[in-house]
Amino acid sequence: MLKGLNIAFKDLKIESRAREIFISMVVFSLLVLIIFSIAFSNLLSSASKTATVASGVLWICFIFAGTLGLNRTFATEVQNGCMDALKMCPIPRNSIYLSKVIFVFLLMLLVEIITIPMFSVLFNYQFTAIIWVGIVILLGSFGFVVVGCLISALVIRARAGEMLLPVLLLPLSLPVIIPAVSATSGLLRGEDIFSLMSYIRLLVVYDFVFFAVSMLVFEYVVED
Amino acid sequence: MMLVVALGAIFFYLPVMKDSAGNVLDPSFNIFYFHMPIAIVAYLAFFVVFVSSILYLRENDSKWDMVSLSAAEVGVIFAFLVLATGSIWAKDIWGWYWVWEPRLTTSLVLFLVYVGYLMLRTALDDPLKRARLSAVFGIVAFVSVPLSFLSIRIWRSAHPLMFGGSLYGQDGGGLEGSSLLLVLLLNMLAFVMLFISLTSFKFQNEKLGRELEMAKGR
Q1: Which domain covers residue A63, as residue numbers?
Q2: Do B125 and A213 touch (CB under 8 A)?
Q3: Rounded to whole angstroms, how far apart are CA atoms B182 and B41?
Q4: Chain B contact set for A206 (CB, 8 A)
Q5: pTM check: above 0.90
Q6: Is B134 within a domain?
Q7: Which of B124, B135, B136 sits opposite A158 (nearest CB)?
Q8: Measured between CA atoms, how close is B38 to chain A, in angstroms?
């Protein structure tokens, strides 16, 4: 666990100097927002209409940006044989996976922290129940990253891996994305959090299940 | 031997259509006798992929890899047939081929996940690596199966629920009369047989293919 944190810290240090992944994620996410804002420009006058599209737009931004980030996480390790060096370290293989989850999760959070106010500005929208929305977004992003890091490690060895990643990842992470999007849109429409508990429960369960399964099988992905 | 089973399946399956014609429901409901067994078989196939993937990772025996591949291919075809038969019925009853509601969405996702599984296999060249990585994917992919199965029980859904109660108190439609149930069970048996025979055909095929590769390599 602690060793995973060490590796994640190393990744963050590299990223804080080069900032290549983070910048492209943020810019991409904002571009998607701008395109939607142009496309939906005639909806922007009414807050209730904006509320119905908000959760879809936000999650598309997060997921696309997240996929972009996931594409690069293991790619940087494969260059110059860094992965072999990591595997030689006297640490459980899981902690490599854990470190990547922490790293991408933090990146996604940063992107989300920038995207949400920008959404507010571009769509002229006032968020309600921001704490609950935040919690749902946290849970959803975590589940997405958990699946994403595993698939990212998997496809890095395949031909045309970067093209394969979204094709495999999007359907697989849907058990997390569906409840996250539904809960977010419910909250933004002003529904009570307790009426959305079934989504939250599903989200938490799938977060745990995906995380546990990925921790168990990751060893086999990097073995060779 | 396998042929006998497959033929048996067809013989089982033919008189069934006549049997079930005279029920009180709309005749298009007859498709249910294909639809549900096919759906169950698709779940079964993906369960086989799941189990044999685990066994492959445990025992490192390429036999299990071949089982996963065979079951996944048959499963994808069955998953597609579920969507197709469901859509035909939906066009007749609901008026649309497709509506976005939980059961349909999750079934589509299930199909796409396993199409992804087959795509992953074609993208990996080294046989050992392919076997190992696709086994990992096969295990993770199975996580989406229960969601599809339970979706009509978890969420309010337009998809009919035949057996068992849902969380929302919508009762199962239920089947009147034991003859209909018998027909359903017969179809179920026939489709399971069909699945087993198709999978083992594919398995034999794959095995022969690999032996050929080995012989060529020598």
Answers
A1: 1-222
A2: no
A3: 18
A4: 143, 147
A5: no
A6: yes
A7: B124
A8: 21
Pairwise CB contact (< 8 Å): A213 & B116: no
> Which uninterrupted H or E stretch holds A215?
helix A197-222
Is residue B216, in this structure, part of any structural domain at all? no
Strand boundaries in B50-160, DSSP class E: none
Q: What is the DSSP letter of B154?
A: H
Domain total in chain B: 1
Q: Which two structure tokens, joined as six digits, stand for B105?
A: 């969405």
A161 touches chain B (CB under 8 A): yes
pLDDT of residue A159: 74
Q: Tell me the nearest-neighbour CA distance from B66 into chain A, angstroms.
A: 18
ipTM for the predicted complex comes to 0.80
Model confidence at B218, pLDDT cuts 50, 70, 90, reads low
List all residues 6 or more positions away from A198 whose beta carbon is below 8 Å from its beta carbon. Answer: B154, B155
Q: Determine the structural domain holding residue B61 and report its residue range.
A: 1-10+30-159+180-201
3-class DSSP state for residue B96? coil
Between B12 and B128, name the one with better pLDDT: B128
Residue B209 lies in a domain: no
Q: How far apart are the first and last CA of chain B?
A: 32
Q: Region A179-190: what's the mean pLDDT?
A: 85
**Which residue's structure tokens are 């594919």?**
B202
CA-based nearest residue in chain A for residue B113: A171
CB under 8 Å to A1, separation ≥6 — which residues? A95, A98
pLDDT for A142 beyond 90: yes
Chain A residues inside the 8 Å CB shell of B154? 198, 202
Residues 77-136, chain B, touching A (beta carbon < 8 A)? 105-106, 109, 112-113, 116, 119-120, 123-125, 128-129, 132-133, 135-136
Does B113 sit within 8 Å of A210, measured CB to CB?
no
Total domains present in chain A: 1
